[in-house]
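Sequence in, structure out. Go.
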Amino acid sequence: MKRPTPVRNANGFQIGIQAEYATSTCLGKGGMLELPDADLALECASGILWVTRDGDLTDYILEAGQGLTLARGDRGAVQALRAGCLRIAPLAQGPRWKPATIGKP
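Output:
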């Protein structure tokens, strides 16, 4: 059975992730994901992911087991530098990871 093609916005970011419950998604190398506007806990489950937020000059590089929190109002996006999976949960469920590496993709 063929998997449905992800819905993308005008910038090419995959959309449709819900923030009400924990979920995970996998991205191929170079794949991008627009993050929902919510208080979120992000965790890299595998691969290497780059996270950026509007208005934040810092780039965040996440490797397996590392994570980052985003607050409502932070417009964020994730890009896979190496194919990997990302866990996304409401911040109320709490983060469980090591801090992200700060660097340039």
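Check: The chain has a mean pLDDT of 76. The two ends are 35 Å apart (CA to CA).
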